Amino acid sequence: MLCHNGAVMNNLILLILCFIAGMLLRRYKRMPDNAPATLNSFIIHVSLPALTLLYIHELHISGDVILVAAMAWIVFGLSAGFFWLMGRWLQLPRATVGALMLVGGLGNTSFFGLPMVDAYFGSAGLATAIVADQLGSFFALSVLGITVAGIYSSGRPTAAEIVKRIALFPPFISLAIALLLIPVEYADWFSVLLKRLGDTLAPLALLSVGMQLRLGHIAEHRRNLALGLSYKLVLAPLAIYLLYVQLLGAQGLPIQVTIFEAAMPSMITASIVASEHDLDPELANLMVAVGLILSFITLSVWWLLLRTI
């Protein structure tokens, strides 16, 4: 246990240093403005597919996999209901309600979630985290997220557009290939190659996130920001814990990782979708930035609580 705690601390220090480095590089203009987009593109096209090919290949399909994949859909469904009610009660503008549903209902289970799962649970938790991201968060964004964005703005995505977005997403393509290759044994050199490429995700992701951090306009959005972050960082993982552990009696590492992923801060891509649909972009970006900083604390608390199940 002492060795594992030391590994957690080392990985966490690496992530925090990369995050701070990203902030400093942006602050002192040491990287071009499009650097985060370039890093994100490498992660989406190389790092994440490599991890998917490596860890999904070792996946054993079970009842846990269904619960893992369902988590993001449940969190988004609860988010839609919760913020619709809050919007009615507080008389919030439609754009604000749509933004809260999107960024409150979708967690950063990939760029931030995978490095954090690796830091706290080790590589044993990565297969579960990838399922939670690919079959959970990504699908929920592509189907429910895009639909909600369309409803709360003027546009309406067609079914064909949604299917095309899913089918052409590189991590999804790698997921399909990994599932097909489960019966095939990888050569040692290929596994090592995938591992080395996958190891680039954590430092590059946190570097990118740090470079995109924006903290302006907090005061004018403090009520809605507090509402959104309370749901995303506390209520959402609590709901999954009560449903999975207390009601269904599920236990073990996959369930711990699933609840941990439910506690992730808001998805960067969700804030981009909100901005593209003109759904309170300032609030959406603040949800990502402030939630990311607070989550270094809240995730540590959730990890301590989850060790008991």
Structural features, described:
With 309 residues, this protein is an all-alpha fold. It has one domain: Na+/H+ antiporter like fold. Helices cover 76% and strands 0% of the residues. The chain contains 14 helices and no strands. Helix 5 packs antiparallel against helix 6. The radius of gyration is 19 Å and the shape is globular. The protein starts with a helix and ends with a helix. 48% of the residues are buried.
Q: What's the SSE blueprint?
A:
Blueprint: H1 2-27, H2 35-55, H3 63-90, H4 94-105, H5 113-121, H6 126-151, H7 159-167, H8 170-180, H9 188-198, H10 201-211, H11 222-247, H12 253-262, H13 268-276, H14 281-306
Notable features of this structure?
Na+/H+ antiporter like fold, globular, 309 residues, 14 helices, mainly alpha
Give the overall pLDDT as a whole number: 87
Structural class: mainly alpha
Rounded to an integer in angstroms, the radius of gyration calculated over CA atoms is: 19 Å
The name of the CATH topology is Na+/H+ antiporter like fold
Q: Tell me the span between the first and last alpha carbons.
A: 16 Å
Overall spatial form:
globular
In short:
By secondary structure, the protein is an all-alpha fold. The protein has helices at 2-27, 35-55, 63-90, 94-105, 113-121, 126-151, 159-167, 170-180, 188-198, 201-211, 222-247, 253-262, 268-276, 281-306.
